[in-house]
Design brief:
The chain is an alpha+beta fold and 196 residues long. The protein has seven helices and five strands, in the order αβββαααββααα. The strands form two sheets. It has a three-stranded antiparallel sheet. Helix 1 crosses helix 2, helix 3 crosses helix 4 and helix 5 crosses helix 7. The longest helix has 25 residues.
């Protein structure tokens, strides 16, 4: 197959390909027998800071995976804004100008795998958390105590303000329902009405 130049460029020197590593999440494209998986890594403070991938897929899969791994490794997860799938799709579409109809499923499989990685990493991280200090946001290591302290110090803060100030809920988004529950419980306990 002849790939467009931008796909070849991304695949020529893969910076995030890591064969043989344990993967957090994966997805398969059964019609052609390809698989892709991602590994998410954390820094010393517990924040997700790097990603790598492994695949037997096509150039489009490799290119899309390279884009996502590079973004996570340079930006962290601060720009995910709670929806991994949407973030991943947008990031790939910004860099791959033309995704042909026969390759859209290849890219969608990459999006599915990175989403699965975030949710699997959250479950694994919580299972490994020996101290279990009420960790709410695994992307940014935000505890329930951090959230309650912020709300106590900022009694007029709304949910959006809480998320922006603490970063909780701004990564993969898996903690948003729990964050909302804590916020509502604190506001009800404080006598404040919640309006959405």
């Amino acid at each position: 197959m002849n790939y467009p130049e931008q796909i070849l460029k991304l695949c020529k020197e893969p910076g995030f390909y890591a064969d043989g590593v344990a993967l957090d999440g994966r997805a398969a494209k059964f019609d052609c027998g390809t698989v892709i998986g991602f590994r998410l890594e954390r820094d010393s403070s517990g924040k997700i800071c790097r990603a790598s991938y492994s695949t037997n897929g096509c150039g489009y899969m490799m290119a899309a995976a390279e884009i996502l791994c590079r973004k996570i490794s340079t930006d962290g997860v601060k720009n995910l804004c709670g929806d991994v799938s949407e973030w991943a799709s947008d990031a790939i579409k910004k860099e791959i100008e033309e995704i042909t109809a026969e390759r859209i499923e290849c890219v969608n499989t990459v999006v599915e795998a990175i989403s699965d990685s975030f949710f699997s990493e959250r479950e694994d991280f919580l299972a490994r958390d020996d101290n279990n200090q009420g960790l709410v946001c695994t992307c940014f290591s935000i505890t329930e105590g951090d959230i309650l302290n912020f709300l106590e110090s900022n009694p007029k803060a709304d949910l959006d303000g809480l998320m922006k100030a603490t970063a909780a809920g701004m990564g993969c988004g898996a903690c948003r329902l729990l964050l909302l529950e804590i916020y509502e419980a604190q506001r009800v306990a404080g006598g404040n009405q919640i309006h959405f």
